[in-house]
Recover the amino acids of this structure.
């Protein structure tokens, strides 16, 4: 999580609220009643002055135009001051002012304070105020355009992405989602390792309803698998793409074994003269790929492990037990031996930092066998 | 370069992610080279000086961005003192209590500073700070917490889907839920009414990657949804949210166990896989990252590293070599280097090295990564992460039985009170499993995996609010002897 950073707006009037005649009727309130609080913050004079007036305003419950000015001033000094945002929102409602000015201000502040929760939440509140109005579609569409713009400056910003998903969840318009896959594709073309974009793709394809043209779900799943495999072939050592691949299979309850031939290409050391055949289902690794790829080895071990379990479930071992009891041990562990080999190679060679985990997987497989 | 410090493969396909990754690896690598084979030292004195400066003199102007997080600033300092095994004099304790009580809101809960609205996050921070410095009686803080009003505040931000707004007109996220559950647990105001639906909400935040996101949201879009539960997670799996969701899930177990209806579930296998994937490789010195394809950062030493201590409580068989029912089965093997003991699912040694080599700022305090500055937040969570890598604190059936024997119930009891109390305080450090890199001088205190307080502080405040006498621990906690 990002740490504290300072922000002192530069070009603004230096007049303190205590020097402004229009505030003469208000008596600023000190922050602390005790004289020597621990761990105090050394505020700038302007910030201290403004927050003193803010405390006084809250105390008397005033909601007026000048409150909008005061809260904006404080927000520009400290956009994480949630009480100020909260009071500003209540004042906005009380004044029943048109929202245009507020939206315009928020466009400026969101760019300035991209990493602040409150900035994005205030936008949500404003959008909710417009949701049932006649311009709700255009408000949401504008918001998506704004988010797209913000993501250019900060491609993995958590708030921005979850805000986008929130907008898509809240506004009920087929057209809003229409170009969402193209948007994700642009982001991934720019950086195929952007995990936020992969997560967004999962949201769009699987978790936000069925769009026109996507009713054939088997086709959609196939499309996603092809898309992901192609992206893996460009840069095989990309955990985001492999996680997505697992996500698609888990979601559609498809066996990992279905991808065995694809995964095998990535689980062996680089060999330049193997593949020249174009196989869309099994795109080969790029020629500079650094293989074997850890994620492919892990995937392969999962396939073996599952096969070992299925053999038991589907009665292979039961039959063996009846007819060839002495072979039971051998057959039962056949697939397990393979997965164990792969896990061992991960633990001792390819992914040594996770040695304990790979050893745990071996123990678990034996316990559950 | 150590033999295993291979750069992250980029397959000759550079992107912005691989650029920043390579830059970070270069910086981190330099930090191991600079240190050579020297034994890493936890510069306790320098960190103490850093903390005391913040505590007594205060924070420079750039901390204005934390003006609405004043309870956090104090909580981080106080808990850092606790982890560093530093006690406080009565005068500073009293000043801390007096400061904290200025943040209590007249309508219940605590705000981010005097006169600020009640908010779940500072409420947690203020109550934890009081657990450390407070006491019963007049001006002791504990009895000046208005628990009835706090409960009303909690109920006022409760949502129909089991989640909570962090404050009036504010956002929903699992950090707030964690903060609420810890506070309510410590103060004995955790009721079935309060947490109705909350476990389901938590479960809905797990993503396809296995970690948890900030929140989830019902989908109102066109067409039929394909999900069993039409609640997509908002945002990707993230270390901070994952810790909060997992700890919340465990805090809710007394309610889940007691419920007779259909129970929400989390995918434990995917969760474990995601957690271990967050550990950086040798070239990243084994620090933790908070999301897939992001950079390692010291604070995730706690958010992700600290999550491992919680796994056994959700049925993950972390350590097949020990059997809590049969200490004789514990495998004493003096010949085996501790590196080979199956003691946890992550690399405890590497995490300690990341914190010691990269996490410490030369001028005191701890940080995200070099060359960043130290700050109070990273100082606390790097130290807590170091603690979770040094010590294994897990739920012990023997300790639970001991607490149960001395439990005294009161009239018109919430039937789950006892279970909540035992569930929260049965955590003990597994005997013989502490691993201190750099030698005994680097030892820090163990922390409670659910609360991030020391077990002693958690016992103190809970004993008071549940009106129980905490029995001393009278047995050796089982575990692999060494
Ligand atoms: Zn951090």
């Amino acid at each position: 999580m990002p740490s504290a950073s300072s922000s002192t707006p530069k070009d603004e009037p230096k007049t303190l609220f205590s020097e402004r005649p229009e505030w003469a009727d208000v008596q600023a309130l000190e922050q602390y009643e005790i004289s020597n609080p621990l761990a105090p913050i050394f505020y700038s004079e302007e910030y201290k002055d403004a927050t003193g007036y803010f405390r006084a305003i809250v105390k008397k419950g005033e909601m007026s135009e000048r409150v909008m000015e005061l809260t904006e001033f404080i927000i520009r000094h400290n956009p994480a001051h949630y009480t100020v945002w909260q009071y500003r929102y209540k004042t906005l409602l009380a004044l029943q002012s048109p929202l245009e000015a507020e939206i315009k201000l928020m466009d400026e502040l969101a760019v300035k304070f991209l990493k602040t929760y409150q900035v994005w939440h205030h936008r949500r509140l404003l959008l909710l105020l417009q949701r049932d109005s006649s311009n709700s579609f255009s408000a949401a569409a504008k918001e998506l355009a704004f988010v797209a713009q913000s993501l250019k400056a900060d491609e993995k910003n958590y708030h921005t992405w979850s805000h986008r998903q929130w907008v898509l969840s809240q506004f009920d318009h087929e057209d809003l989602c229409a170009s969402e896959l193209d948007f994700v594709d642009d982001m991934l073309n720019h950086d195929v390792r952007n995990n936020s974009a992969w997560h967004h793709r999962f949201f769009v394809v699987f978790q936000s309803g069925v769009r026109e043209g996507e009713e054939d779900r088997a086709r959609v799943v196939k499309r996603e698998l092809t898309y992901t495999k192609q992206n893996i072939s460009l840069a095989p050592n990309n955990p985001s793409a492999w996680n997505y691949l697992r996500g698609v299979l888990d979601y559609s309850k498809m066996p990992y074994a279905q991808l065995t031939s694809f995964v095998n290409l990535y689980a062996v050391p680089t060999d330049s003269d193997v593949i020249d055949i174009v196989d869309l289902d099994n795109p080969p690794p790029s020629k500079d790929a650094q293989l074997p790829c850890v994620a492919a080895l892990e995937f392969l071990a999962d396939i073996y492990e599952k096969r070992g379990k299925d053999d038991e479930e589907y009665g292979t071992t039961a039959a063996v037990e009846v007819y060839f009891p002495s072979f039971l041990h051998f057959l039962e562990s056949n697939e397990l031996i393979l997965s164990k080999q792969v896990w061992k190679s991960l633990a001792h060679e390819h992914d040594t930092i996770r040695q304990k985990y790979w050893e745990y997987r071996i123990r678990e497989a034996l316990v559950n066998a | 370069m150590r033999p295993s410090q291979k750069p992250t493969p980029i397959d000759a396909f550079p992107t912005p992610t691989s650029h920043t990754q390579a830059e970070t690896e270069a910086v981190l690598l330099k930090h191991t080279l600079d240190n050579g084979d020297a034994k890493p030292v936890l510069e306790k004195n320098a960190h103490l000086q850093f903390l005391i400066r913040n505590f007594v003199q205060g924070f420079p102007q750039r901390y204005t961005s934390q003006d609405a997080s004043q309870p956090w600033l104090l909580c981080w300092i106080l808990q850092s003192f606790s982890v560093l095994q530093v006690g406080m004099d009565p005068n500073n304790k009293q000043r801390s209590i007096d400061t904290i009580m200025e943040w209590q809101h007249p309508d219940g809960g605590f705000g981010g500073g005097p006169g600020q609205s009640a908010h779940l996050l500072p409420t947690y921070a203020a109550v934890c700070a009081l657990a450390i410095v407070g006491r019963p009686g007049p001006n002791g803080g504990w009895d000046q917490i208005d628990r009835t009003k706090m409960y009303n505040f909690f109920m006022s931000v409760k949502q129909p889907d089991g989640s909570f707004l962090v404050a009036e007109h504010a956002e929903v996220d699992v950090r707030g839920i964690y903060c609420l559950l810890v506070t309510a647990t410590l103060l004995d105001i955790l009721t079935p009414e309060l947490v109705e639906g909350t476990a389901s909400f938590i479960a809905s935040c797990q993503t396809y990657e296995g970690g948890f996101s900030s929140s989830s949201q019902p989908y109102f879009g066109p067409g039929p949804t394909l999900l069993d539960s039409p609640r997509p997670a908002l945002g990707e799996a993230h270390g901070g949210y994952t810790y909060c969701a997992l700890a919340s899930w465990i805090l809710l177990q007394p309610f889940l166990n007691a419920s007779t209806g259909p129970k929400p579930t989390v995918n434990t296998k995917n969760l474990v896989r995601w957690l271990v994937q967050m550990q950086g490789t040798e070239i990243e010195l084994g620090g933790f990252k908070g999301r897939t394809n992001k950079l390692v950062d010291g604070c995730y030493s706690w958010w992700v590293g600290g999550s491992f201590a919680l796994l056994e409580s959700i049925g993950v068989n972390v350590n097949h070599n020990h059997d809590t029912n049969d200490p004789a089965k514990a495998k004493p093997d003096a010949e085996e280097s501790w590196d080979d003991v199956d003691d946890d699912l992550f690399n405890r040694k590497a995490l300690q090295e990341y914190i010691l080599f990269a996490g410490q700022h030369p001028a005191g305090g701890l940080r995200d990564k070099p060359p960043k500055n130290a700050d109070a937040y990273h100082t606390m969570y790097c130290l807590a992460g170091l603690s979770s890598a040094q010590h294994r604190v897990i739920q012990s059936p023997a300790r639970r039985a001991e607490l149960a024997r001395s439990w005294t119930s009161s009239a018109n009891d919430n039937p789950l009170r006892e279970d909540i109390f035992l569930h929260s305080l049965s955590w003990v450090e597994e005997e013989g499993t502490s691993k201190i890199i750099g030698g005994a001088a680097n030892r820090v205190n163990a922390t409670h995996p659910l609360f991030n307080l020391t077990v002693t502080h958690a016992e103190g405040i809970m004993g008071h609010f549940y009106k129980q006498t905490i029995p001393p621990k009278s047995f050796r906690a089982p575990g692999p002897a060494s």
